[in-house]
């Protein structure tokens, strides 16, 4: 029942949308007892179920001027799967809330569902329910469900100890460079900056690496793990249990800290090139860039050899300390203006637009 | 990371919002191993988990001109809990995606979370995660989780047989009357039409009745059950397995039908009064009204005495037939223009704005 009373001129009927959706999203997981089409979906998971939810909103998280419909569908699911990866959970299913403006037509939806299905099918993650609505701009909310298996751990952000090795899986700063280029040049930027643009348009959720981390840790102290959505400079304090900027370069009491040792080889060539062109310290680009969806973790040093064998792209970036602040290449790293987009006095040019509860 | 680059003038910081939220939503369920604050929440449920998701959008599903912030918070959760009720599942937890415009301040959020917490605490349903974002209008997406216990059934829409008794739990048409009055008179309508306005502003999810239905059915053929969100005339065909309007008053083949027998005593006095004032057949008001969030079900006739004993508000409204169409008081009931708000040619004045997958 709607509070709107004028005629709709929507270009696709509900039935047509549901048929379109059904062609892209089969339901074939054993754990799903009841999928789409009833009031609830029903799961049975033998061990425990991990749940996460993220929004993906037009003009807040993406622009249609340089995101194709397929990119939008892909990334909306990718940012959610990244949360499962960050807990070492195996992706299982998701629900989709989709608000679409009147100008969206069936060909658009085919591309959108197609892009989302590309990623869903990669991980055999089933669409088990959702909600469709008209809305003024494109609105996507996804909730993902994953399971921890009998031989793996659910990995949290906590539990690091002084002396632990800090590692990253994935590129840092590259997506932020891509955002800047796409904002200024549109999709033309893809020709000279293919990896940066791809990092922003289609981030890769590190689900398989997350699963390996969960399994490797089964009989030992598990790694602390999270995904980097707000940039290393914002997310590392969360891994350390520091309260945002407060703990940076200003040690207080007994909280954990970090000594980062970054080398130029760890910086992506496009990040180096972009930083040089803008006269910005490339380490700075690397640390403040948001939406990397890389995994950030810490574990006992003696666990690293087996992790490096199982996850070739893992990179050591530093060590946990008990100093209560963060240094980068022996220099205390002072925070930038935060990403907190709800703050009255936010001044920076790259504010985060979502905050996970 | 945001694509917006201008300064934010948001009146509440993220930290203040999170503190506000924490005061209203404790996390105290045994089944929740990890709640808010990490990348995922973690559940352990011994039997099976029911999941549903619904959006609640400003100017689509509600208006701030007559919904208080507390009403918005309450109803956003209520429409989701109603889906759990419709499956006989016990409410356990929920996640919240909240998009808020810049003008929303902390006092507004206190009322919003307070209204939501009123209902959450009634059913001891825990907020286990979510996502906050700026957005142009108020956007709420909620995903709810429920469990089926060892001595109850997960109830679906299917399984009705000819001869089954059709029943309703809750009022029909009252919320639609409330919507009309609130649209025309604002909250002043509450004085003369308190029940109709309340039915629209704060619908009651029939969770306890849903649980009773699941338990009563444990050792017998379970009732078919769903909640009525689009009006009886749209939702009854779904219970019968008819494809929307197609099956109405136009019997084809072997599909199920229904003979409804409605009496004036079953019509709420405010529905009768409103229908008389608008010269509308009150049975019509009762059948087409949306957002009732009543439960609609069907079961073997010999199950009704025990259901009536356990659920005093249950009402018999008819019998399942094998005629493939629906009659109301012996008259074939022809459908109204549907609620399908995506259809190009939608002409009616009350179009539904969401469609569950």
**Strand line-up across the major sheet of chain A:** 8-10-7-11-9-12-13
- What is the assigned CATH homologous superfamily of the largest domain in chain A? PurM-like C-terminal domain
> Could you tell me which chain pair has the largest interface and how many residues each side has?
A-B, 105 and 104 residues
Number of helices of chain A: 11
CATH architecture of the largest domain in chain A: Alpha-Beta Complex
For the record, the count of structural domains of chain A works out to 2
CATH topology of the largest domain in chain A: Phosphoribosyl-aminoimidazole Synthetase, Chain A, domain 2
**Unreliable runs of chain A, pLDDT <50, ≥5 residues?**
4-9, 244-253, 336-353
Shape, principal axes of CA atoms of chain A = globular
Query: What is the subunit organization of this protein?
Result: homodimer
Number of beta strands of chain A = 14
Q: Rg of chain A from C-alpha positions?
A: 21 Å
Q: N-to-C terminal Cα separation of chain A, in Å?
A: 30 Å
């Amino acid at each position: 029942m709607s509070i709107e009373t004028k005629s709709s001129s929507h270009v696709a009927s509900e039935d047509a949308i549901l048929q379109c959706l059904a062609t892209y999203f089969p339901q074939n997981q054993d754990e799903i007892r009841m999928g789409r089409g009833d009031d609830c979906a029903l799961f049975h998971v033998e061990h425990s179920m991990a749940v996460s939810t993220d929004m993906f909103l037009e003009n807040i998280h993406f622009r249609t001027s340089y995101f194709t419909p397929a990119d939008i569908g892909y990334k909306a699911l990718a940012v959610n799967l990244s949360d499962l990866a960050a807990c070492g959970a195996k992706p299982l299913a998701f629900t989709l809330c989709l608000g679409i403006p009147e100008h969206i037509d069936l060909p658009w939806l085919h591309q959108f569902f197609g892009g989302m299905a590309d990623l869903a099918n990669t991980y055999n993650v089933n669409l088990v329910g959702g909600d469709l609505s008209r809305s003024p701009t494109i609105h996507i909310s996804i909730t993902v469900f994953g399971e921890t298996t009998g031989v793996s751990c659910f990995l949290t952000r906590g539990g690091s100890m002084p002396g632990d090795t800090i590692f990253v899986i994935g590129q840092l700063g590259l997506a932020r460079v891509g955002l800047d280029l796409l904002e200024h040049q549109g999709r033309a930027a893809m020709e000279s900056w293919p990896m940066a643009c791809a990092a922003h348009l289609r981030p890769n959720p590190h689900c398989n690496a997350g699963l390996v981390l969960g399994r490797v840790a089964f009989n030992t102290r598990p790694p602390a793990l999270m995904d980097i959505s707000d940039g290393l400079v914002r997310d590392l304090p969360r891994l350390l249990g520091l309260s945002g900027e407060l703990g940076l370069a200003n040690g207080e009491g007994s909280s954990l800290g970090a000594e980062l040792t970054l080398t130029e080889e760890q910086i992506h060539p496009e990040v180096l090139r972009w930083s040089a062109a803008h006269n910005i310290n490339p380490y700075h680009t690397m640390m403040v860039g948001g939406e990397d969806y890389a995994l950030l973790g810490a574990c006992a040093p003696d666990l690293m050899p087996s992790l490096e064998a199982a996850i070739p792209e893992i990179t050591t970036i530093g060590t946990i300390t008990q100093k209560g602040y963060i240094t980068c290449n022996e220099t205390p790293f002072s925070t930038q203006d935060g990403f907190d987009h709800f703050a009255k006095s936010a001044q920076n040019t790259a504010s985060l637009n979502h905050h996970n509860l």
